[in-house]
Amino acid sequence: MPNAFFIDASRCTACRGCQVACKEWHGLPAVNTKQRGSHQNPPDLNPFNYKVVRFNEHLKDNDRNQVVWNFFPDQCRHCIEAPCKYIADDYLEGAIVQDQGTGAIIYTDLTRQLSQSVYEEIRDSCPYDIPRRNSATGAIVKCDMCHGRVRNGLLPMCVATCPTGTMNFGDREEMLKLAHERLDVVKKEFPNAQLVDEDSVNVIYLITDDPQYYHDYVIGDARPVPGPMTRKEFFAKLAAPLRAATSKV
Ligand code: SF4
Ligand code: SF4
Ligand code: SF4
C-alpha cells in the first residue's frame, strides 16, 4: 500500500515550521534573500529548499474589499506515474527511482551525471515545477518524502513538525478518506473548496479557493504542452512506450 500526504491548506497558518524542519533534517544551508514586499521567503523552491510555504493575497470578490490570504506549503507531489522519472529513465536508468513500498519518487546521486539539457527536460516535464539543480554538485534535488525516516517508522519531518494538523501522512487509502471527510466539512464555509489531482498524486492538497489564488502550478494540467492534449494525457502517451520497453527487460 503506497503512502500519501494529505495537506489541508485550510488549516495552514504559514508558520513555516515545516519549511525550516525540512531544511534542518536534510542539513540544507540558509539562502540569502531580499525583502520583496511579501512574507514569503524564499521566493521559490531552490536546491536548498525542498519545501516552501507560498503566500498569496487577493481581494475578495465582494464590495467590502476584504483581503484573503492563502497559504500553500509547496513540495513534490510524488506522482503515481511520475513524468520526471519517465524522462530520466530514457537517459540513465536509476537516476530517478520509485520506492515500491512508499511510492516515493527519489532522485539519486546518479542525477549528477545528467546533462543540463536533460535537467531542463526533467524540470519542464514536472506539472508542478518542482525539480531544481544544485549547480555546485550537479545533483537534481527535491523532496524525498523523508523516506529514510518513513522506513524506520517515523513521520516525514514536515508532518511531525506541523502544529495545526495541516500536514498528514499515512496509507494512501487512509489519507484519501481523511481528505474527503475534511472536504465535506470545509465546503460548508468555502463552496469552492476542492482536492487537487487526487487520482494522480500521492500528495493531496485541500484548497479552499480558486487555484489561481495560490500559485501558478497548483493543478497538474496548468502548464502548456504541445498540441490539443492535456498535460496528463501528453505524459501518459509519452510514458507508455517507455513503460512497455521497461517491462520487456
Ligand atoms: S511532482 Fe514533479 S518532481 Fe515530483 S514526482 Fe511529480 S513530476 Fe516528479
Ligand atoms: S517529506 Fe521530508 S523532504 Fe519532503 S518536504 Fe517534508 S520534510 Fe521535506
Ligand atoms: S508547519 Fe503546518 S501550519 Fe506551519 S506552515 Fe507548515 S503546513 Fe502550515
Distance between the termini: 25 Å
**Fraction of residues in β-strands:** 15-25%
User: What's the total count of β strands?
Assistant: 10
Largest sheet: spatial strand order: 8-1-10-9
Total domains: 1
CATH topology: Alpha-Beta Plaits
The SSE string, one letter per element, is EHEEHEEHEEHHEHEEH
CATH class: Alpha Beta
**What best-fitting shape do the alpha-carbon axes yield?**
globular
Helical proportion? 25-40%
Bound molecules: iron/sulfur cluster
Gyration radius over CA: 18 Å
Unreliable segments (pLDDT under 50, ≥5 consecutive)?
A: 241-249
Main sheet makeup: 4 strands, mixed
Tell me the structural class.
Answer: alpha+beta
Mean pLDDT: 90
